[in-house]
Write a structure and sequence with these properties.
Residues 73-256 form the CRISPR type III-associated protein domain. The protein is an alpha+beta fold. The protein is built from 7 helices and 8 strands, in the order H-H-H-E-E-H-H-H-E-E-E-E-E-H-E. The chain has helices at residues 7-12, 18-30, 34-56, 114-127, 129-138, 150-159, 228-242, and strands at 70-76, 111-112, 169-170, 173-178, 186-191, 204-209, 213-220, 255-257.
Length: 258
């Protein structure tokens, strides 16, 4: 990691450095003639092309040791993974990434917060008890749990009514490998919302995790109504079925077994 740039810093701090605000953004506010506006747009495009390429070309991974004793790995599939879309990241300029992204503050690597993993898993319990039972029926690992109460299982896993030492713990899911030929793990993509059917849509550029990138989902699980092995199998299947992150309704955030 020494001498390698922190991608989170590049995306949130370096992206809008002092040269952007003093030499580009403020200058653009004063330009009135058409030729000046044209040159200004080209200057902005060059600025963000350089910043974007500096982020997208990064391919060095930070080798983290697992925090949880229990884990499984999953690989992203097309079109990739988007996390942190709720964060602000735009000034209204062309060619900039206009949607936020999650980066670990220390390593600068993309990650999936443990709270999001836990929330996604619990949402599956809330949405449909029959869905959880279908997973049990489809896997012989759960042959001894057909009569258990799904409500009791949910409380045991997510409510934490036991001592702190007996609770299941959900850690951040971390990026550990890229199977892309150049080792890259970040890419760009666009969405084109149609706000007015009589006007051309304006594409919105955003950063994403590419397909073929492996994440390690980490936990510290305890035997209970389900064994540790059964909980891992259940959690893995829920993430494979539902996906995680933003825009899962159009295919983002889906994985395949690694």
């Amino acid at each position: 990691m020494k001498n390698e740039p922190n991608i989170g810093f590049l995306f949130y701090k370096d992206y809008y450095d002092s040269s952007f605000w003093t030499k580009i953004f403020l200058k653009g506010e004063k330009i009135k003639n058409q030729e000046g506006k044209k040159n200004y747009k080209q200057e902005v495009k060059r600025y963000f092309d350089n910043k974007n390429n500096n982020i997208l070309k990064q391919n060095k991974l930070y080798p983290l040791q697992p925090l949880g004793k229990d884990h499984f790995t999953l690989k992203t599939i097309y079109p990739g993974l988007l996390f942190g879309a709720g964060y602000m990241h735009e000034t209204g300029q062309d060619n900039e990434f206009k949607i936020g992204f999650y980066f670990d503050y220390t390593t600068g690597m993309p990650y999936i917060p443990g709270s999001s993993v836990k929330g996604l898993l619990r949402s599956a319990f809330k949405a449909s008890e029959s869905y959880i039972r279908e997973i049990f029926k489809s896997n012989s690992l759960f042959c001894n749990v057909n009569e258990i109460s799904i409500s009791d299982l949910e409380n045991e896993i997510f409510e934490g009514k036991k001592s702190i030492y007996d609770r299941d713990i959900f850690f951040d899911a971390v990026l550990i490998k890229s199977d892309n030929t150049d080792g890259r793990f970040l890419g760009e993509d666009f969405i084109t919302p149609h706000k007015d059917p009589l006007k051309n849509p304006v594409p919105i550029k955003f950063l994403k995790v590419l397909p073929n990138v492996v994440f390690r989902f980490e936990f510290d699980l305890k035997d209970g109504i389900l064994s540790v092995e059964q909980k891992l199998a259940l959690f893995k299947q829920i993430i494979l079925d539902l996906g995680i992150g933003a825009k899962t309704n159009v295919g983002y955030g889906n994985f395949e077994p690694n």
